[in-house]
# Entry
Amino acid sequence: MVKVKTCVFISGRGSNLKNLILCSREKNFPIKINLVIYNNKNCEGVNFAKKYMIPFKFVNTKFKKSENEILKELKKYNISFICLAGYMKIIPSKIINKYKNKIINIHPSLLPKYKGLDTFARVLKNKEKKTGCTVHYVNNKLDDGGIIVKKSFFIKSNDSVISLKYKTQNLEYRAYPEAIIKVFSNI
Ligand code: GAR
# Structure
């Protein structure tokens, strides 16, 4: 099986990156992670790239020229698919247009509800019955784009921001690989 050359973009802890690295080592998983791009110097997640010997590249997204730097790096590694995993920056339209329907993201809410930041606090404040995570295609709008997989759970009366985050992230570790399999089984 020829695996799809993939780049994962991260900004933080990288637990989804770690999970995707482990999945991608399975024989029948459709992608191989050939590159990790990160935009935060203090990003712990880059240590997973180091540990699993995956090339990694820091890009300072404060500067406009970072768009071209990213595109150059993607080209260098022949990347044809991108997974955003806790990447806290809007993807410039130049990159989105070049990778049309080839960029997916995971978000910690049941989209289209609770786009943006602080999802858990807002979910609690609004006394929602359920929450969860969504994997979706990336387009030019924030946390928008076609939904691939959505997973949910019921919120308990004693849930807090911390417990919701914990439960949501555990769901994410199932949702993201499932979404990737789905994307490539439809092609
Ligand atoms: C994940 O929960 C992901 O859903 C969220 O950041 C976390 C990253 O965790 N992404 C967003 O909020 C994007 N809008 P990780 O670094 O441990 O994978």
